[in-house]
């Protein structure tokens, strides 16, 4: 049995683990990185990257057949589903060197390609190696949660971990789960020529602002996606066509089944109890991301039990590095964290939704709105379906919701504003090139100030007074 002593031992080479490994090693820390599966973790291999690559193929197919009133005749796209999957894997292969073992060894990180598990409060074993570290970081991410629905063992079940390896186009894809993953995959497969049915036990896109979610769902239904809400999947069975999902609202038969009902944090194999690390569905951490019961252990990303996004894991890396390397107080916060669902139209959020803001601040909240159909660039491109809402308290944005073209890009300005405690006046004072979709953000800020300027009797009296006395 080999033994290693190190400053930092990181378990998991996904977004959070890799960010910490790169930063800590380049700033002088002695780092050991453990990964028993694929470098890059879920995001690169099964999540963000492959899903957006498949969405890009689907978007191109849809654009060819739906050219709008732009003077270009639509054509029926010749969709090669297997070739679309080739594109997915080409994208993964192109990005993979950035997350590769060789690159991180070049930074001075010792990479061990084995799963790690705790054997004491200060030691982790990975294969034939025991690592004793001053600090440990659990960055194991999460995987698809497959609920114990009767009959699932008798049928082929796809999740985000194997759907991208499927090369034969499904005739009829049934998606169980109407959250972001389910809806993104539903639309992508519909645009690539599949019939698609989504079955959701509650409300589709139920964690988003209902008004914004409905903009997206209307578009998806318009493309021919069947969305069955408040229909809990009670049983699954084989059928002549492939698979049948039995629900309280009837039976739905398809050729393929995709489960997209949520995520499960990967902590089962860590033997956390041997390290005295408290946990439930994730590691129990404080605002500093340290274990509440073993101060040598940190958890980041999905393992920390909060928002499950790749960019959150990257953000956590900065919080942890500040604490581990420099001994400085460092705490996470979530009010400035944006997220996006990459349907078409996209849906993005940062900070509080309208309902959350009104619950927290009551009458002090002002909600300003601006529709896409009044943006000149959106009109020119035929992308006029959409809306932005900004929740404002005492002149500062506390949340923004956007449903529409490029929502995931537009939300960045509001994330910056909230993170830096900027006022609406900072957005209003920003000069943007014309015509751009980003002017929607500025026009939303203008909608906040317009009543104060154009409907104010005091302003009108001041202007009248000044005009009378100006030479």
TrEMBL record:
Keywords: Disulfide bond, FAD, Flavoprotein, NAD, NADP, Nucleotide-binding, Oxidoreductase, Redox-active center
Gene3D superfamilies: 3.30.390.30, FAD/NAD(P)-binding domain
Requisite cofactors: FAD
List of residues binding FAD: 52, 116, 140-142, 302
Domain FAD/NAD(P)-binding, first and last residues per copy: 7-316
Cofactor: how bound: Binds 1 FAD per subunit.
Residues the record lists as binding NAD(+): 177-184, 200, 262
Keyword Nucleotide-binding belongs to the record: yes
Residues covered by the Pyridine nucleotide-disulphide oxidoreductase dimerisation domain: 337-444
InterPro entries found in the cross-reference section: FAD/NAD-bd_sf, FAD/NAD-binding_dom, FAD/NAD-linked_Rdtase_dimer_sf, Pyr_nuc-diS_OxRdtase, Pyr_nucl-diS_OxRdtase_dimer, Pyr_OxRdtase_I_AS
Enzyme Commission number: 1.16.1.1
Disulfide bond annotation, renumbered to this chain: 43-48
One Pfam family in the UniProt entry: Pyr_redox_dim
SUPFAM superfamilies cross-referenced by the UniProt entry: FAD/NAD(P)-binding domain, FAD/NAD-linked reductases, dimerisation (C-terminal) domain
Superkingdom, taxonomy of origin: Bacteria
Single GO MF annotation: oxidoreductase activity, acting on a sulfur group of donors, NAD(P) as acceptor
Family that this chain belongs to: Belongs to the class-I pyridine nucleotide-disulfide oxidoreductase family.
Full protein name: Mercuric reductase
Gene assigned in the entry: merA
């Amino acid at each position: 049995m080999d033994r290693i002593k190190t400053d930092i031992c990181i378990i998991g080479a996904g977004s959070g683990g890799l960010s910490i490994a790169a930063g800590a090693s380049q700033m002088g820390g002695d780092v050991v990185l453990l990964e028993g599966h694929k470098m890059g973790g879920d995001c690169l291999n099964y999540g963000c990257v492959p899903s957006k690559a498949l969405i890009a193929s689907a978007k191109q197919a849809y654009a060819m057949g739906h050219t709008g009133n732009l003077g270009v005749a639509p054509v029926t796209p010749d969709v090669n589903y297997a070739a679309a999957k080739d594109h997915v894997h080409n994208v993964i292969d192109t990005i993979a060197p950035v997350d590769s073992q060789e690159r991180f060894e070049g930074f001075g990180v010792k990479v061990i390609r084995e799963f790690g598990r705790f054997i004491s409060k200060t030691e982790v074993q990975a294969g034939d190696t025991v690592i004793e570290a001053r600090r440990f970081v659990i960055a194991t991410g999460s995987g698809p949660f497959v609920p114990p629905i009767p009959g699932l063992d008798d049928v082929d079940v796809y999740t985000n971990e194997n759907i991208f390896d499927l090369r034969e186009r499904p005739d009829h894809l049934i998606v169980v789960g109407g959250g972001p993953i389910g809806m993104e995959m539903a639309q992508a497969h519909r645009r690539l020529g599949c019939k698609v049915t989504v079955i959701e036990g509650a409300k589709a896109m139920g964690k988003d602002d209902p008004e914004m979610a409905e903009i997206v769902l209307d578009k998806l239904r318009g493309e021919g996606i069947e969305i069955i809400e408040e229909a809990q999947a009670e049983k699954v069975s084989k059928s002549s066509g492939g698979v049948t999902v039995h629900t309280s609202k009837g039976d739905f038969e398809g050729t393929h089944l995709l489960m997209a009902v949520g995520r499960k944090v990967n902590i089962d194999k860590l033997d956390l109890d041997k390290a005295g690390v408290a946990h439930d569905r994730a590691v129990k951490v404080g605002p500093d991301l340290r274990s509440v019961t073993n101060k040598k252990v940190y958890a980041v990303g999905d393992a920390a039990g909060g928002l499950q996004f790749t960019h959150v894991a990257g953000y956590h890396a900065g919080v942890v590095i500040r604490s581990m390397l420099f001994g400085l107080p460092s705490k996470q916060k979530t009010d400035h964290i944006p997220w996006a669902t990459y349907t078409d139209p996209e849906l993005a959020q940062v900070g509080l939704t309208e309902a959350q803001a009104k619950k927290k601040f009551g009458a002090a909240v002002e909600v300003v709105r601006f529709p896409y159909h009044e943006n000149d660039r959106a009109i020119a491109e035929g992308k006029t379906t959409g809306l932005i809402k900004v929740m404002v308290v005492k002149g500062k944005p506390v949340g923004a919701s956007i449903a529409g073209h490029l929502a995931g890009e537009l939300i960045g300005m509001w994330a910056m504003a909230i993170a830096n405690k900027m006022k609406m006046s900072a957005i209003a004072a920003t000069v943007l090139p014309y015509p751009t979709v980003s002017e929607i953000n500025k026009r939303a800020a203008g909608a906040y100030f317009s009543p104060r300027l154009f409907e104010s009797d005091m302003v009108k009296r001041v202007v009248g007074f000044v005009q009378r006395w100006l030479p």
